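Wed. Picked up where I left off yesterday with SAM-dependent MTase RsmB/NOP-type domain-containing protein. The coffee machine is broken again, so keeping this brief.
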Amino acid sequence: MHFNPFISVPRYIRLNTLLMKKAEAMEYFEREGWKFIENTFETYDEFIEAVQHLDDESFMVDFHIKNLFIFPASSKKHFASNELAAEGKLLLQDKASCLPSFLLNPPHKSTVLDMCAAPGNKTTHLAAIMKNKGKIYAVEMNAKRYQTLTKMVEGTNATIIQTMNRDVLEIKDEEVPNIQYILLDPSCSGSGIVNRFASDINKDSNRLYKLSGLQFKLLTHAMTSFPNVKRIVYSTCSVYPEENEEVVLNCLQRIGHFKLVNAAELMNNQWNNFGNETSYPNLGSKVLYARMGEDGYKSDLTNGFFVAVLERCEEDEFNEFYLQKQQNIAVHNEKFGKRKAEKVDENVKEEVQEEIVKPKKKKKWINKGYNQ
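Structure written out below (tokens, as returned):
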């Protein structure tokens, strides 16, 4: 894959609805001299085309996330020192980073676990989606990143968030009771981030192996340790399938009581980039990628990102990947058992043949007392 340097990522500004209303934000931008472009596009492709031609004085609202504003790439320096951003009312967050929270979409008063929460953009987005009603446990193991997380939570008035400086793999259900929704955005290669956009040539296979192992452990923990979970969103800022489709497939093959949800349907079938259906049948087309100027893909004008949505199966229901894996194991065991039985039978047959063919030895009677 190659990054297209001629496509620039716009500036995305997420409105923190816990501190500011949308109408107030619109008025502020217009006072600052920005001209609002009404979003009347029927398709996502039409919207992308309009964003690509956004002039230096105009802004729009995102096609999917209605509290996400889009400004031209030239505005990045302006918003870096914006007073509303300093107050936590406006958050500088790429659209791709908003997708996991948007797709998890926990209702008000639900209980959520953010397993790898720092720096807190997704966590505070969840609090806004839930309108500050419910409970969010935000876990971060790294001490320095944990400080960043707590600072962001405090600065955004997200009062339903309880931060935890812990290793999430050690957290049990009784410590965070009644978890219903889980967001897992673990450490990854970061290969989708524009300023360090990676190619297959630059892959570090050893690092990817270690990362995918950790990602597998974390997703397995999410799927097996919290019995009340209804939905899990797994995401990375990576474009490598080893951290994405491969991790999701391995977990689904081993854990039958969660199934993959078609992310396209959650986006109202208005999205362009998905996983590799050829390499991952019945999985690739259901997971979502955000892509930025790669050869062979339509641009989403965002950083590279991956999102998969899992939901708990109905009682006595198992996902198709688990069932197929179990069937393959059964077939293998049957064949192996048959071959083993045939080998045992053959050995027994050989032993019997040896006894039939082998001449019997005559017993030699020896009476030690009477030998002459």
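Quick read: The longest strand covers residues 305-312.
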